[in-house]
Specification:
Among the domains are: 102 residues, no CATH class; 106 residues, no CATH class. It has nine helices and 22 strands. 35% of the residues are buried. The protein has 549 residues and is α+β, with helices and mostly antiparallel strands. The protein starts with a helix and ends with a helix. 50% of the residues lie in helices and 18% in strands.
């Protein structure tokens, strides 16, 4: 009789546990990161009575968290890739919007400037025509600077976003390490762990993964979390912070490093960080933003220097030789902070039509110099000349670099050369009066328009890169940004679809299905009532036996 009662009581306990788990699933249906739980039941050991073994009911072995580590790993990888691509697409879309605005584009300003220059050709002795041209020139410069400032602001924004992302990473890794510690303490000898903390830890890992892209391994219930480049962020109950630091090659840029006990802050090569929103930011900066700034600077440099060269050949209304019509910035060279010497390098343009829309990494091996285009990692051929004073000149791609002999560079010294990236910052109209417009081809010809005609012909000259007019060059900038934006949109949509499919697979395992839970609710209710009926029946039988005696 006792075995019947014990079996029924175990069934009641099992039913209560299953109903409790089902209730918890239903309650957490809308909670992000919650993994469906299942009460695990097992047959109790039977008892030998006479020649037979009789069952002793059911045992509750635990509450199982429905989780597929393989699907979770796949989902993390796809989510990190999607986060990178969508971030890059979101950023470059801002540049696309800037360049494609027809009413305020550089193309419109350039066209307006040359239209007014045509009026000077037609009315060379008309001061109002010259003044109108001068006003349009100032408007053109303003448009160049507005576009350049917008891109500069984006550089600053990327720096800020990198810094805030690293703070977020450090906060999350600290929380994961703390959860590792809590889970280790609360886990039982038979392997049971607090499911709520497991869910919370996985949710934090997913958030971290969307920022920087991580891989996860598990040992003794604790997570070891590493970046895609292998750098460990969390190991058990210990977390390792990242730092936001100035780039060694360009101190104006914020990059990523880690703290080493001996070496201090160590910079992580950006090419190793390719996933997560942080990888997308870095890709946008190096691939898209730099290119847009350099293309715009290349256009401005080719236009202003060519216009100045022709303008200086003419004569103004006062009979004076023409001067520079525009001011423009100059190339910039930045020394790497890891250089072992105080050696410096200066740069100047030799042929703006040969300039490329790229920065250069220039390095010294102790004997020879090498230069690599940052845009495509292509090595360029350098004409290297050393004079009797020990000064070295390096010529390539329309540039001339000068390396003083003192202080001499050492092997492994390197420099970042920015031929055109920041030249628009110093762009302005050099002349201040309409009478200074050098439209004449000779002294004393107020109605002479020969030099103005030469200036006008620059509109159709292949000034940019030696193969494109000003309008063609600008159209190429708009086209390249637009094509890249479209390509990233397609890639982003594809990655989003992959993430959606994997999420559905993951939810089919870990997600709460209300229809299933309603069915379980009914099943376990009936299960409870059946065991209660057994208990009632056993009680009735027991009472009958007592009455017989």
């Amino acid at each position: 009789m006792s075995s019947i009662i014990n079996s029924a009581m175990s069934g009641l306990s099992a039913a209560q546990a299953a109903l409790s788990t089902t209730s918890n699933n239903i309650s957490n249906y809308t909670v992000a990161g919650y993994s469906r739980q299942t009460t695990v039941l097992a047959q109790a050991n039977s008892t030998l009575q006479g020649n037979s073994y009789y069952g002793n009911g059911v045992n509750i072995t635990g509450v199982q968290r429905e989780y597929d580590a393989f699907i979770a790993t796949q989902l993390r990888g796809s989510s990190a890739n999607y986060s990178a691509v969508s971030t890059q697409h979101s950023q470059i879309s801002n540049i696309d919007d800037l360049l494609s605005t027809s009413t305020t584009s550089l193309s419109t300003s350039l066209q307006g400037f040359f239209t007014n220059l045509q009026n000077v050709v037609s009315n060379a002795n008309d001061p109002s025509a010259r003044q109108s041209m001068l006003s349009n020139a100032q408007g053109l410069v303003s448009q160049f600077q507005t576009s350049a400032q917008y891109l500069n602001n984006m550089q600053n924004s990327v720096n800020a976003d990198v810094g805030s992302s690293i703070k977020q990473v450090n906060t999350i890794t600290s929380q994961i390490a703390d959860l590792n510690k809590q889970i280790g303490k609360l886990s039982t000898a038979n392997g049971a762990a607090p499911n709520d903390l497991l869910d919370k830890r996985d949710q934090l890992v997913n958030t971290l993964n969307n920022v920087v892209g991580v891989t996860v391994s598990q040992q003794d219930g604790g997570y070891t979390v590493s970046m895609a480049n292998g750098l460990t962020l969390v190991n058990g109950d210990k977390s390792h912070d990242l730092v936001a630091m100035p780039s060694s090659s360009d101190p104006t840029r914020t990059t990523i490093g880690y703290v080493d006990k001996q070496a201090g802050n160590v910079e992580i090569p950006e090419k190793l960080i390719t996933t997560g929103s942080l990888g997308g930011l870095l890709a946008f900066r190096s691939q898209d933003l730099d290119l847009a700034q350099n293309q715009l600077g290349q256009l401005a440099a080719a236009f202003t220097t060519s216009f100045n060269d022709v303008h200086k050949q003419g004569f103004d209304s006062n009979g004076d030789q023409g001067v520079d019509f525009f001011n423009i910035g100059s190339p910039l060279v930045v020394s790497n902070s890891k250089n072992s010497t105080a050696a410096s390098v200066t740069a100047e343009w030799t042929d703006t039509s040969a300039l490329k829309a790229t920065n250069y990494n220039v390095s010294f091996d102790g004997t020879n110099w090498s230069a690599t285009r940052a845009s495509d990692s292509t090595a360029v051929t350098i004409a290297q000349v050393k004079d009797a004073s020990g000064n070295t000149t390096l010529s390539f791609d329309g540039l001339k670099l000068t390396v003083p002999g003192t202080p001499a560079p050492a092997a492994k010294d390197s420099f970042l050369v920015k031929p055109v990236q920041n030249v628009i910052n110093d762009m302005s109209v050099a002349i201040t009066n309409e009478s200074q417009v050098a439209a004449a081809g000779a002294v004393g010809g107020e109605s002479d328009n020969r030099n103005a005609q030469k200036l006008l012909s620059l509109q159709d000259a292949k000034l940019v890169g030696g193969n494109a007019t000003l309008s063609q060059a600008y159209a190429a900038i708009v086209s390249s940004v637009g094509n890249k934006t479209s390509s990233l949109q397609t890639t982003s949509d594809t990655q989003k679809s992959v993430v959606s499919q994997l999420t559905q697979r993951q939810q089919s395992v870990s997600g709460v299905n209300l229809d299933e839970e309603y069915a379980n609710l009914t099943k376990y209710q009936q299960y409870y009532m059946a065991n209660a009926q057994v208990l009632q029946t056993a009680s009735t039988v027991f009472n009958a036996l007592i009455n017989i005696r």
